[in-house]
Amino acid sequence: MAMNNIKTEKEKTASEIEQLFQLLRDKENTMNERLEEMEKKITMVENAKLPNQVASPSDRVNEMEECEEPVWELLKNKMRAEKQKIASEIEQLHQLLRDEEQTLYGRLEEMEKTITLVENENISKLSNQITSLNALITDLEKKCEEPAWEVLKVRHSLTQ
């Protein structure tokens, strides 16, 4: 029965760890989707053209350089910050998972120690009972070897 409890607890622990891994994978997928969206926005800004309000091509080039560079740098910086934030969140999730795994393995180890202790106590009790039963069997065998009149004599003395 104790081994079934350990097996059940191990299965439960494995299930909890798998759920944590799934949570981590889901979070990582969400973060990657956010990064892809940001990269798409950056690509759109890179490919965007200024409105046709500029009179000459050289003015247009100058205005594009003035306009796009800060926006581009801003978006790149924002993307870098978002990547760092995502990496930090993923690392925190990994650490949470490692901590939870250690906690669960610690609980399993404690349960195994407790079960081993109980098993050893039960073995000790059974061993003592076997020793007592063997002593009784030996006494009964000795009595069976005695002549019948000795057994009757002992019985007679017990009744008086």
The biggest beta sheet is recorded as:
none
Number of helices: 3
User: Could you report the average pLDDT, rounded to the nearest whole number?
Assistant: 79
Give the helices and strands as they follow along the chain. HHH
The percent range for helix content is: over 70%
Structural class based on helices, strands and sheet pairing: mainly alpha
Fraction of residues in β-strands: under 5%
Q: Sum up the overall morphology in one term.
A: rod-shaped
Low-confidence stretches: none
* Through-space gap between termini: 51 Å
Number of strand elements: 0
- What's the alpha carbon Rg, rounded to whole Å? 40 Å
Report on the architecture of this protein.
The chain has helices spanning 2-47, 57-145, 148-159. Helix 1 packs antiparallel against helix 2. The relative contact order is 0.10. By secondary structure, it is mainly α. The mean pLDDT is 79.
Topology diagram in text:
Layout: H1 2-47, H2 57-145, H3 148-159
Helix pairs in contact: 1-2
Keywords: Coiled coil
InterPro entries: TRIM/RBCC
Coiled coil: 3-48, 76-143
Question: Nutshell version of this structure?
Answer:
Residues 3-48, 76-143 form a coiled coil. The protein has helices at residues 2-47, 57-145, 148-159. By secondary structure, it is mainly alpha-helical.
Name a few traits of the molecule.
160 residues; TRIM/RBCC; 3 helices; coiled coil; mainly alpha; 0% strand
